[in-house]
Amino acid sequence: MAGVDQVIETESLPVSVHLSGMVSDDANPDFPTVKTSWSLSNNQTTVIFTNSGQLQTTAELFGLGKHTFRLNVDDAQYTVSDELTVEIKRAPMERTFIAAGSEWRYLDNGSNQRTKWRARLFDDTKWKEGPAQLGYGDNGEKTELSFGGNSSNKHVTSYFRHAFEVTTPTGVISLEAALVRDDGAAAYLNGKEILRSNMPQGNIRYDTLASLTVGGEEESAFQPFTVDPILLVEGKNVIAVEVHQTSRTSSDISFDFELRGKGSDENQPPKVLPFNDLTLAWPSPIKLEVQVSDDALPSTPGQLAMRWKLKSGPGTVTLIDDRLGVTAPMHIGHSRRHRGATTASFSEPGTYVLIFVADDGKAQSMRELVIHAEGNSFAAWQHAHFALAELGQAIVSGPDADPDNDGMSNHDEYIAGTGPKDAKSRLEIRMIQMDATGEQLSVYFHSAPNRSYRLLQSPNVLGPWQTAGELNGPPNGGPVKLVVPLGQIQFFRLEIPGD
After folding, report:
1. What are the DSSP calls for 273-335, one per residue?
2. Model-level pTM?
3. What is the number of domains present in the chain?
4. Range 90-99 average pLDDT
5. What percent of the chain has pLDDT over 90?
6. Is-contact 424 490, C-beta < 8 A?
């Protein structure tokens, strides 16, 4: 059995799916081994299994929607399979459109604004601005309103407007609002009435009095109510509220408002952490690791596409998986980052620039990775001197092997720049010759391209050894000599400095 179907809600991709299969077998001794493997039967998204050959394993999915996993079981005689469906849904996100204590545009001159002021596109740029709580008379207001200067004939109505942005209104599935009003209020979203609190029925005018006097804790308590999200529009939205007094001699007024919603938020591009430059000894392959996080938006296509591509370099690059080979997810704080890995090899040494692309269907993120494939490595030397079949034989191509029996191991030949299959190609002093004066010796040897040499001398074969001379071989190699003073008894050694 593959297990029961699953439904998983998520706010980010990738999603970790736990798979737990069960297998029963007849224990036939002729077929003692049972092999199991998981696969994704549809190819809608990238999936990476921790170990697809285990009954209990984890799969990382990079896309929303329904995904069918298949568990295959094979005892070498019969093969059976079972499936389960895992549906990955976008979890509704909490979003605050208007927080308590927000800035509001307000009008507190007691004028008759009729109904135009409620409209979404009404020009309120000449209104005053201030943070909530707005009001007077309670000593806790952040913004003090004017009542007109005559305490016996105060303004009945004060007006408030606040604009907020919504990128995808269809993605908002619910709205919850809360209002502080002393005494009564009517609220509008984009010109449509959404609440009437402690106000009479019928048309509300600028001089309409609130129904009841509000006092005590009710003056500063948020009164919750729901709002139909269908009233939202793409772009600018406006909440407009009018607060009314119960009389022109009312002692105070209070106003604050908050609006929260659930649903899809604005799509953000995938996030790819920066890379550090990498260096490899060509032609050895190198592991490329990447960390990616995404918000699982947009819901269509509902998947994160990732790939590597070559921007520049002297040759070609071969990737085991140009999209993403994934190891394990990493959780950092409340965000979810994913570490992926693939292996790259390069056709020749040099500096390459690769680009990693993460695409959520609406937005793309790209990061460049610089890789220095350094040549002249032992591995490159092996590839240059041995056939493919020989590379798999350590006794032929290994660092300690001596296939030409010249007394120099392959690693010594690599350092010296000599040929591992030619016994005549070795680091050795070919001839020592005294000049006509009898005061100098010329030491002859064959140099390899781009090698530096040091000649050591000692009066004793066991040393101590001192430097007699040094030289850099010619770019193409060839016969060279070092001239040194003649001593009474001299032994010579030839070496390559630094190795």
Report:
1. PPPPPEEEETTS-EEEEEEEEB---STTT-B-EEEEEEEE-SS-EEES-SS--EEEEEEETTE
2. 0.50
3. 5
4. 87
5. 57
6. no
